[in-house]
Amino acid sequence: MRIIEPAKLISETVKESVLPHLVAIYDDRGDQRGSAFLTMWNGNQLLVTAKHCLFGHKFNEKPATKSIFDGNELRSLDVVARSQVACNQELDIAVVHVEGFASNRALPYSALQFNEPALGMVSIVGYLARDHRRSLLDSTLRPKPFCHTDVAVDVGPELVGVKYQNRVIATKSGQRELSPIPLGLSGGPMLDASALVLNQVKVCGVFTEERLSEGYVFGTHISALAALMQSLLEP
Predict the structure, then answer these.
(1) Among candidate residues 176, 177, 184, 180, the one with its CA nearest the CA of residue 164
(2) What secondary structure letter does DSSP report for 18?
(3) What is the DSSP letter of 184?
(4) Pairing of strands 67-69, 145-153
């Protein structure tokens, strides 16, 4: 019997069952500001990301100036949005009702693990800013997804932490280089790595921030999304 390494199983599940729901967020200068994912709830397509990807770290940017790239087309958020952006005042997470994306681009609502306990291993999936810049000359986009998997770190009940060390890694070509700084991954899904090994997708958080000097990164637990989703139904 052929034994497949867990890392390969995770990579295969991410490619087949996570990347189709992933999008990148750009600003009006053509720079990537983060990642996001699409899901479906109450008959509506939702775009889930980190709050700072839309409003900026200083909350001085407008979501309407951001654009969404789904792998085929770059579209203004102002055009595809069908609601105001709902965001948590204390946590770095946001959601907005959107339209115009193919139905199969939306991750099933059942994949959101609102009440799951702390995990042993977590995977972060998104687009690194260094690999996902838009050419202002021809608007060419060449997305290169990135997945990081490591042990979970306890950073509090409302957050999901993951070990992340800026260390030397070996590439497929045999070269050695530093593991990338996770700029651009903000807003991407954080997933239960053990479920990915079993070809299952379970979203436990939304990636938001790095603490590389302390050897970890973290995001907002997906449970914070429930109240925001409900607020989109309010008149």
Answers:
(1) 180
(2) I
(3) T
(4) unpaired
Lowest mean pLDDT of 118-127, 160-169, 222-231, name the range: 160-169
Q: Measuring CA to CA, which residue among 207, 203, 208 is closest to residue 191?
A: 203
Task: Write down the residue that tokens 């789904």 correspond to.
Answer: 70
Contact predicate 25/47, CB 8 Å: no
Q: Give the residue among 183, 184, 167, 170 at the shortest CA–CA distance from 36.
A: 184
- How many CB atoms are located within 10 Å of the residue 31 CB? 14
Contact 213/166 with Cβ under 8 angstroms? no
- pTM for the model stands at 0.90
Helix (H, G, I), strand (E, B) or coil at 196: helix
168-170 and 32-41 as β-strands: parallel, antiparallel, unpaired? unpaired
How far, in Å, CA of 193 to CA of 9, rounded? 10
Over residues 11-64, the pLDDT tens digits come to 899 999 999 999 999 988 878 889 999 999 988 999 999 999 999 989 999 999
Do 145 and 19 form a contact (C-beta atoms < 8 A)? yes
Separation of alpha carbons 141 and 42, rounded Å? 32
Angstrom distance (rounded) from CA 77 to CA 26: 10
